[in-house]
Write a structure and sequence with these properties.
Mean pLDDT: 90
Helix content: 40-55%
Largest sheet: 4 strands, antiparallel
CATH superfamily of the domain at 4-126: Dimeric alpha+beta barrel
Number of helices: 13
Radius of gyration: 24 Å
Number of strands: 12
Strand order of the largest sheet: 1-5-2-12
Low-confidence stretches: 306-313
CATH topology of the domain at 4-126: Alpha-Beta Plaits
Structural class: alpha+beta
Length: 436
């Protein structure tokens, strides 16, 4: 088993090519997985991927931010293997898309190496990256979904021959195990899912230990300067302007809605300006480091953004998410893949982890006013939802490798597979059977 990583490539679009690029991406979106331009389904390691265009904008000083093309993917490691697959399997497809961008090799100079060099040169590191459950590759997700389907089909077919309610839970489980042992295509399920490599686990343990030591070492210094920090913070919060009119035009709402609620999963992309000054720059970068650290080491088992300290209930509908500081620190790009509608997605965050939203996004221009970094803000539901919609951007192409599976489905399927080989007592067997 492997772990999951993120790739983000951002390239400036040629001045007169943006409409042609939008047209091309529109053709791709008509058949995301199997289109002839870039058949993403042929890339074996991708969980989710997207192409989006950052339209021309202005920074806080009125400087023009040129339009850019963003390609992002959530993949099974290693990252280098994904880059190799991109240029080897869909290299000519990459040509068609990125030839609209500045600096891409001209037709006579496009080779495997020149394509790789371009992608690497335009790769942007995420400041924070969230994975619902680390170490669950695409192949395993597909296998475990099919396993559940076959077991359910078996139980339904046998229903005409057996009165399952007359059977003990132990006997029903044994019948399922016998099915798996007798079917060659299912014998893999008798073995527990593989864990990430020992080398990776050692590296993660060391990263956690050194990160924790760093936090503990800096904590006394922060406590010492915290009165100054919070005094500056509160002063800036009282002076921050909030955008009053965050309504979208009918056309803007339509463009976003066209790309939402087609399957059980959804995508979200948003970009916004970071508030000016060194104070906000340092604050947002430190907070994103902490978000990344906790997502990487603590909230990596199906629960994002921490735990609601009152209900002990977190957000379990997110598959992947990333935060990326772009444009030399002037903007923050956020991309996520989640289950359900955008409305339910926003409600989940407001109701469960509003303080977490406030801590990071209150450093963005126009965010609803906060107090002491984590209070108020997203609790103003209508202002928060308007802010989110105003900063949401169109994702021209969005691909998912398993469009009918929610994060909860995937976790449940993994538990079904695990229960086949585990030793289960009577209550545990009953709980296992309820998963079907």
């Amino acid at each position: 088993m492997t772990h999951q990583v993120a790739l983000t490539v951002i390239a400036k679009i040629k001045l007169r090519e943006i409409n042609a690029l939008k047209h091309l991406l529109g053709l791709i979106s008509e058949d995301i997985g199997q289109n002839k331009i870039i058949p993403l389904a042929k890339l074996s390691k991708i969980h989710f991927a997207r192409f989006l265009i950052l339209e021309e904008a202005k920074d806080l000083k009125g400087n023009i931010l040129r339009p850019s093309l963003v390609f992002s993917s959530n993949i099974d490691a290693p990252l280098e293997g994904h880059l190799q697959e991109l240029v080897e399997v869909v290299g000519e497809s990459i040509d068609q898309i990125f030839s609209h961008c500045e600096g891409y090799p001209i037709a006579g100079e496009r080779t495997r190496q020149s394509r790789l060099a371009y992608l690497r040169a335009h790769q942007i590191k995420s400041q924070a990256f969230y994975v619902n459950t680390v170490g669950r590759p695409v192949k395993q997700i597909h296998q475990e979904a099919k396993l559940r389907d076959q077991i359910e089909s078996f139980l339904d077919q046998q229903q005409t021959k057996h009165r399952w309610w007359d059977w003990s839970t132990k006997d029903i489980r044994k019948a399922i195990q016998d099915l798996i042992r007798g079917e060659k295509t299912l014998t893999w399920a008798e073995n527990p899912a593989a864990e990430p490599s020992l080398v990776w686990r050692v590296k993660e343990t060391l990263h956690f230990l050194f990160g924790t030591l760093l936090i503990l070492a800096l904590l006394p210094t922060f406590l010492l300067i915290s009165p100054i920090f919070f005094a500056i913070l509160r002063y800036k919060e009282t002076k921050d302007a909030q955008e009053n009119d965050l309504r979208l035009s009918k056309q803007e709402r339509g463009n976003l809605a066209l790309r939402e609620d087609h399957v059980v999963q959804n995508q979200f992309s948003a970009v916004g300006l970071i508030k000016p000054g060194w104070f906000r720059q340092i604050t947002v970068r430190v907070l994103l480091w902490l978000v990344n650290f906790t997502c990487r080491h603590i909230f990596n088992k199906g629960n994002l953004a921490g735990i609601d300290l009152l209900s002990l209930d977190g957000v379990d509908t997110i598959h992947f998410a990333r935060w990326i500081i772009i444009d030399e620190g002037r903007r923050l790009l956020f991309c996520s893949n989640y289950d359900g509608s955008l409305e339910s997605y926003m409600n989940d965050f407001i109701n469960k982890v509003a303080w977490g939203l406030n801590a990071v996004f209150s450093n963005g221009v126009g965010y609803p006013k906060t107090r002491w970094l984590v209070l108020d803000g997203a609790k103003d539901e209508q202002a928060f939802k308007a802010f989110i919609r105003q900063h949401q951007i169109v994702t021209q192409v969005w691909y998912t490798a398993y469009p009918q599976l929610t994060a909860v489905n995937i976790g449940n399927n993994a538990q079904i597979r695990a229960g086949i080989s585990q030793h289960l007592n009577q209550p545990e067997t009953e709980e296992w059977l309820r998963r079907f």
